Amino acid sequence: MRIKILGSAAGGGLPQWNCSCANCAAARAPRAGIRVRPRTQTQVAISADNRTWTLLNCSPDLRSQIEVTPELHSQPGNNFRQSPITGAVITSADVDCIFGLLHLREQQPLNIYSTAAVRDIIRNENSIFEMLEQAPEQTNWTEFKPGARIEIGSQSGIGSIVCHTFTTGSDLPYYAGKGRKSSSANDGAVMGLVIERGNSKFAFVPGVREITHEITERLDSCDLLLIDGTFWSDDELIRIQGGGRTAREMGHLPVSGATGSIERLRGLRRPRKIFIHMNNTNPMLNEESKEYRQVRDAGWEIAEDGTEFVLPHQISRATS
Ligand SMILES: [Zn+2]
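# zinc ion complex -> structure
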């Protein structure tokens, strides 16, 4: 199984259009004491057969992410209109996770996998996504229940990828949450995935508010972990913006602190541990910072755009 990280930042990317925080400023122009790599918004693509690819979420940067990834380019064949991208698993209805579906609207058949909560928000509350249903065969939507095991078929017949789903939060995106707080419609609002191919497993958990014992056990069975690294501290945005919500209120467990994800996952033995979905304000993105050093010393890595992993043959980087 090949796993490509096409984007690794949280919503807004790095730099973000309206931000001049230390990281965003340094990503635009080098500054002494700050070393920050620009990043596009989180996007992962996986393949079991080297020919067809499944996207994990669809980021707002998807079009440019496809263009810098030759494996995802259209290949001329019987038909000029062709794509190796055959489907997408959607873990939440956040703008960052679904906006890129609009880049895939040009009448190309697409398999979409999501919970009912996510599908209903996309299909029933946002008429713009009817662009994905201009023809009956354009979109084939498979609904899964939280906790379900789904199989992502491979068109080449070389084998399928099995995907185990689990709940990691219940927050609806702001645009859909008004008037439906605490409704059972929130079941399946935010999901994590453990993706299995043969004896290899990796976890993709871009949004998690709390790491339970059950989640820890799932993660410890994996070879590779890509998990929520959005915020360093709970009050990170409040301090930078002068107000707003905490990391946890936004559905993201912070990385640092006694109850943060590094501490919570200290007991993991098996997986290579990598943070993904970093907000541009996160100080650990600065490779000269003490926070970066702390993350690396704890045995963690920070995802970068363009990195590929191959399972099971090697967990180390294929390209960088
Ligand atoms: Zn910024």
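# post-check
The radius of gyration is 19 Å.
The longest helix spans residues 116-125.
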